[in-house]
Amino acid sequence: MKKRSSSFKIFSISAVWLWLGAFALTPILLILATSFLTQDPNSIIKLIPTISNYSELFNHAYLRILLQSLCLASSCTVICLIIAYPFAFTIARSQHKHKSLLLLLVIIPFWTSSLIRTYAIMAILKAKGILNAVLLAMGIIHEPLQILYSHTAILIGCVYDLLPFMILPLYVNIEKLNQEYLEAAQDLGAGWVTTFFKVIIPLTMPGIIAGSVLVFLPSMTMFYIPVLLGGAKNLLLGNLIEHQFLTANNWPLGAAISVVITLLMGIFILIYWRNSKEEDRENLA
Hints:
CATH topology: MetI-like fold
Helix content: over 70%
Structural class: mainly alpha
Largest sheet: 2 strands, antiparallel
Number of strands: 2
Low-confidence stretches: none
Strand content: under 5%
Number of domains: 1
């Protein structure tokens, strides 16, 4: 029986590693190898090694796109955190029947395609959309706001699309918050504001970091939201990669950009992992 159980474990672990190797590691290695090859207008790539694809990334235009993407991802993460924290706190502290309903409202967006939700945002933000119609009817504005096809529209779309990824990790951490810590802080004379910043925020920091990683990384590489909501003028890293592979046929440069983004993502994940390990050590201590 033990031998059969041991064989099953070996088979299961081997299958997992085989799957990871085939569908995760192999594509990454292929992209890495392509990034060191030369572009060929006729056959897409030449098997001639070069590092010019990486040196080309220091071009002013590409650095500007990288900076724009970082600014968008940072703004999206901060806005999601500001909106998600009070919402997650309310869910965690609400009664069970209300908690289920609120969690359902958070999860419902996952039931529909992100692309469909983006088209819904377009219908709201366009010149003759719902938002302008309401503002005009209330007399707040006298002519339609030109929000669609702007950086603001991209930011709104990213926040709407990624907000649940910030709410759920925060909710999990806030729900595990020990009420005795809050009562002890209040017994020692700490007000609500002091308790929030000195006790609640540090204890829920793993959720903040997890949510920030889950929002920041996808918003860095979004390509369909900038295209639909930002138009051709607002080019970001995801659009740049898509352009290099599908339009310019410069696969080596597109691969080099992908490798750089993957390294950036790896750094953020490593920071999160180290922070989680430190939190686990503190909890065990």
